[in-house]
């Protein structure tokens, strides 16, 4: 089932910062929601897709994005979570309640929460 | 020998669950006030934190250590939320018959867990985690949420349920992998 996804705008400078560096994560350290998902500042040229983490689920649990798109994972749950690729090549690190993490996927992949291993999701990149 | 040990433990776990069930959720379902519900909630979470601490000391299994770490983090988080809420509501948690039965059951379970080691401990810990989370979920759904009067206390209990259910599924997954 495809679930409607809310678009969230980002400042270009913040978004490009996600993909810099040579580490395996292609992500960004966890940010407070207010910073990452807040009101856009400056030139808004990129849209992010949002996956909300709430009630011990990734919502939506499957998401399709275009190559280069940013996915914003927002932890709205009462406990810490993380977002970890099943191949273990990328991971968000612990996301405390109220924090978020931006990720630019380079390829299709399944992911899970390594803290609560029953929580799973999938990313498809076109 | 191994089968006997497992069966013996399962008997203890089941007794613990039944003890909890009969005293708390059977035909004589206790009527709890909000201060008593707060006490039960904090106690039930603290007991699982204590079980996790035992597992962290006694187990070398990576999946169990990860599970125990999660239990400690999540249940301490819920205790913190409950503590902040009762302060806000100016409610003092009140010890009651359910709190006491929980603590009595936990005392026996801790003694059993502390008396085991290696694979026998791993099996006993995970069997207990499955039984305990199922019992707590039943308690929250059938007793605590229906009886909570304060809307914020009720909302907190509702908010905690998905985590408890995810813990149960996680526990079943680890339990299954041990067999």
TrEMBL record, chain A:
Residues 20-41 are annotated as: Disordered. Residues 1-20 form the signal peptide. Pfam families: Cupredoxin_1. It comes from the Bacteria. Residues 45-125 form the EfeO-type cupredoxin-like domain. Keywords: Signal. This is Plastocyanin. It comes from Niabella drilacis (strain DSM 25811 / CCM 8410 / CCUG 62505 / LMG 26954 / E90).
UniProtKB/TrEMBL annotation, chain B:
It comes from the Bacteria. Residues 33-173 form the DUF4142 domain. Pfam families: DUF4142. Gene3D superfamilies: 1.20.1260.10. Residues 1-26 form the signal peptide. The keyword Mitochondrion does not apply. Keywords: Signal. The keyword 4Fe-4S does not apply. PANTHER family: BLR2558 PROTEIN. This is Putative membrane protein. The lineage of its organism: Bacteria, Pseudomonadati, Bacteroidota, Chitinophagia, Chitinophagales.
């Amino acid at each position: 089932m495809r679930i409607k996804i809310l678009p969230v705008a980002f400042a270009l400078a913040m978004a490009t910062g996600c993909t810099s560096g040579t580490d395996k994560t292609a992500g960004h350290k966890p940010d407070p929601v207010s910073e990452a998902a807040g009101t856009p500042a400056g030139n808004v040229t990129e849209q992010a897709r949002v996956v909300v983490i709430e009630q011990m689920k990734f919502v939506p649990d499957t998401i399709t994005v275009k190559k280069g798109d940013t996915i914003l994972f927002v932890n709205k749950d009462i406990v810490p979570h993380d977002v970890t690729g099943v191949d273990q090549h990328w991971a968000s690190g612990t996301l405390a309640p109220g924090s978020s993490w931006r990720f630019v996927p380079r390829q299709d992949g399944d992911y899970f929460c390594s803290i609560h291993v029953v929580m799973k999701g999938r990313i498809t990149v076109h | 020998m191994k089968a006997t040990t497992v069966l013996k433990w399962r008997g203890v776990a089941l007794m613990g669950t039944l003890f909890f069930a009969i005293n708390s959720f059977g035909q004589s379902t206790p009527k709890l006030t909000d201060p008593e519900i707060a006490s039960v909630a904090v106690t039930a979470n603290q007991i699982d934190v204590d079980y996790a601490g035992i597992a962290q000391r006694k187990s070398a299994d990576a999946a169990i250590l990860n599970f125990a770490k999660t239990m400690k983090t999540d249940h301490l988080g819920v205790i913190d939320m409950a503590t902040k809420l009762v302060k806000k509501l100016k409610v003092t948690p009140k010890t009651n018959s359910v709190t006491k039965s929980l603590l009595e059951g936990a005392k026996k379970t801790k003694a059993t867990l502390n008396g085991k080691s290696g694979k026998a401990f791993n099996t006993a810990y995970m069997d207990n985690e499955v039984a305990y989370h199922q019992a707590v979920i039943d308690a929250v759904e059938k007793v605590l949420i229906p009886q909570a009067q304060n809307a914020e206390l009720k909302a907190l209990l509702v908010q905690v349920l998905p985590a408890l259910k995810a813990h149960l599924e996680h526990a079943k997954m680890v339990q299954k992998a041990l067999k």
